Structures
1.
Amino acid sequence: MRILLAPMEGLLDHRLRDILTQPGGAAGSCGIDACVTEFIRITSTLLPAERFHRVVPELRNRGRTPAGVPVRVQFLGSDPACLAENAALAAMLGAPVIDLNFGCPARLVNRHGGGAALLRDPGLMRAIVHAVRQAVPAAIPVTAKMRLGYDTPDVALDCARALADGGAAEIVVHARTRTDGYRPPAYWEWIASIREHVRIPVIANGEIWTVDDARRCRAVSGCDDLMLGRGAVANPALALMIRGDRDTGFAWPEVREMLRRYWAAIGLQMPERHRHGRLKQWLLHLARHYPEARDEFGLIRRLVRPEDISGALFPEFNATDAIPVFSSRLAMSLA
Ligand SMILES: Cc1cc2nc3c(=O)[nH]c(=O)nc-3n(C[C@H](O)[C@H](O)[C@H](O)COP(=O)(O)O)c2cc1C
């Protein structure tokens, strides 16, 4: 079984990837086999290398988190030639895998024909994967992540086949349409149908919050491999628990220390106005699993200034002793 950490734009950035892939299991593993970056949107230009390094600083570490977990670089766009050009650059910079987004539900993105809007045009999906496949060295896999359709899952099989025909090495299926948004349930049974229609590996995604969800998802979808999104952000030990390496989640003090290190990393690299939002977002996700997180959220709900948040949550806070390894290395390289 492989377990992948899902891309989550606006939350699961390189700082959180670093923290969630630090070893926490009995065998010194984090339980996660690969991460996918938040999407990098491609419109009509070749992005400068500096932009890739900002979103994916792991490129300076052979495309791996500090703990050594490979990071797939995800692109979102609808222009095959432009996506291909950017993918070639990312590959040159060290991306171990290029992933393509066919599921983003954001209105702005869809209005420009990207993300889930592409599920209405399997021909274009195929052309995008094909162009990217041609542009990057054969040793670098091109993968794709799709929803079941835009407003109906009737197109799911055609879409999956288009990705496979275009040359995708494997696909992740988030088992909902764009119209379904993030509302439960996820329709894992559709993943089983997709598996029967394509010959490439299929990874199941959507609504896996517990070990029992993972077991049922694997049984219904027939997939060995899973991708975890919100579940892993809410319970950082979920991958280890699914593997049977731990019986319970991390104790709250351990998670709180992760939170403190995340706050330190944010403070080092993110504009002040965005910092409080990131921390609150992770706290709200953690609150699904840890009642303590809801209490801590209550303490900072109305606070915006970093010094106020540090004072309320981490009075013992010392900005230099809590920075995750990779973030401090990155800070040095930017200095
Ligand atoms: C805040 C947020 C941001 C997301 N950003 C991305 C993204 O950048 N690329 C992508 O392919 N999917 C993105 N997704 C979708 C997730 O990767 C995943 O498919 C979805 O959350 C379902 O999995 P889950 O139920 O385990 O969370 C995002 C989801 C959320 C909630």
2.
Amino acid sequence: MKPSPWMMIGALFLLAACNQKAQQAAPSVANEPAAAATSPKHASGFEPPADSSIPSDDFGKQIALGRQIFIDTGRYAKGYVGNQLSCENCHLDAGRLAQSAPLWGAYPMYPAYRSKNHHVNTFAERLQGCFQYSMNGKAPPLGDDVLVALEAYAYWMSKGESIGVAPLGHGYPKLPKPAQAPDYARGESVFKRDCALCHGDNGQGQQAAGRTVFPPLWGPQSFNWGAGMERLDNAAGFIKANMPLSRGNTLTDQDAWDVAYFMNGHERPQDPRFHGSIEETRKAYHDTPDSLYGATVNGKTLGEGVLK
Ligand code: HEC
Ligand code: HEC
């Protein structure tokens, strides 16, 4: 088969993306994105250890497996993943990047109470939730090799952090509420201008040789309605700091909110906690202006779900 121009463009962007990842992984400050001078990672003084320092003993094997699961989840945690995403798609640079919910910002904060399920969660339970919602899959049972390896990776990466103190750069940045209420049409223009080239005109992403080159933003292969990224505040913060890839912090806050609204104003797989009615499910789990589940956007009521 002759490669189509789109495949060529895809390949070019793959190269650009890899290059970007290599730059993020490099310790040299000169290679850091423009925001590095004020980057919370630097302000916190915490640098996660280099991959090259993963030990070569049994513990090291678990850490290395955890890293593989994190960056190629569908392959290394097969059976627990129901979409085309990997953990790394939302936790950039293999879970190391500040302001991209890095693992070193998360691990020291557990066990923690979560209003999402009304009890104190262990880190392993937190990971289970990622599989159910962000990965639209199944939670690996507690003690499963997949969870043990991910815990090992996060524990190793967080060595030297204080327990229970949120380091700067943890989570996604919290943007101030936008001056104008987020808007679908404005979000669509931002999407066409700054996102569609990589993520596709219909947010479907791009695959090459059965692997995800650009992850889908909505539709059957993306995160489901129960995921954290479904919240406009999470999505706007992630997008502002990290997108367009390699040009983080170039969008205005308003653009980030608008494009988050446009992205989450589309259908995606049903919330696995679905109660039988969109209204009831909204009341139980999505009762916030930051969720568009059950809202009418662009003439359609959201929350029907789409099948894989
Ligand atoms: C679609 C994007 C997306 C994907 C894919 C994803 N996550 Fe997340 N993750 C998020 C968001 C958004 C949050 C913050 C959620 C919240 O505050 O409710 C989060 C939070 C977390 C946290 C807690 C962070 C903290 O600071 O408390 C951990 C740990 C985590 N994810 C691990 C994973 C793992 C492991 C995978 C793969 C199995 C994964 N995530 C896949 C978006 C994603
Ligand atoms: C140059 C290509 C490129 C552009 C342009 C781009 N992205 Fe991304 N985006 C990516 C890649 C690659 C990832 C996964 C990052 C990784 O795995 O390291 C990603 C991840 C994401 C994710 C998390 C994963 C998912 O599928 O939900 C969201 C949300 C996202 N991008 C939104 C946007 C938005 C909104 C824009 C426009 C403002 C945008 N992106 C522009 C390449 C791009």
